[in-house]
Amino acid sequence: MSYNYPIDEVFWSKEEIIDVVNFYSLVEKAYENSVKKEDLLIAYTRFKQIVPSKSEEKQLGAKFEKESGYSFYRTVRQAKESQSGQLIRMKK
């Protein structure tokens, strides 16, 4: 990984930063290997508690995708549409 995760060190607590980074890393894992649907959706729920604004979510998603090439929007959408207990694997 030679890129930076988009985080807000000014407004987020250390715990919130850890939770957002966990969500980003699960998205990354979905592209590089696979991730459990439940783990991803739990992390996304926590992410939405930290970033409730849809516009801020879109901004962070665009920055994340620009840096990494991975889309957390498409990853979460696939997880929501998949069957329970399924592993999520994304293609770049």
UniProtKB/TrEMBL annotation:
Domain of life: Bacteria
NCBIfam families: PRK04387.1 (NF003353)
Pfam hit, one: UPF0223
Protein name: UPF0223 family protein
Protein source organism: Halobacillus campisalis
SUPFAM superfamilies the record matches: BH2638-like (SSF158504)
